[in-house]
Design brief:
Elements lengths: L1 E10 L8 H11 L8 E7 L5 E5 L6 H9 L3 E3 L1 H10 L1
Parallel strand pairs: 1-4
Antiparallel strand pairs: 1-2, 2-3
């Protein structure tokens, strides 16, 4: 199992350019239009060169995030989980 660690939480209009392709890909999968002020969490999946994108307004709890990450064989680390709880 991989560990997902928070890289940062950004508004879409403040998102570092390097994460743009990941955000656009996730938005296309979800058929989502991104608001420029939407809060987006970027998670690094340890042991890979991959990132996981979370549109924070789409979740009510970290349990929902945990379920999503199970499909990627990943789980949140403790500190990331606590930080995300404060933003949901």
């Amino acid at each position: 199992m991989f560990i997902a660690t928070l890289v940062g939480i950004f508004k879409f209009n403040e998102l570092p350019q390097e994460y743009g392709p990941y955000v656009k890909y996730k938005a296309s999968l979800e058929k989502k239009n991104i608001d420029e002020n939407e809060k987006i969490a970027i998670l690094n999946i340890s042991g890979t060169e991959s990132y996981h994108v979370l549109f924070l307004d789409s979740y009510k709890s970290t349990a929902e995030i945990d379920e999503e990450l199970k499909a990627a064989d990943a789980k949140l680390n403790y500190n990331t989980k606590k930080i995300l709880e404060g933003h949901l």
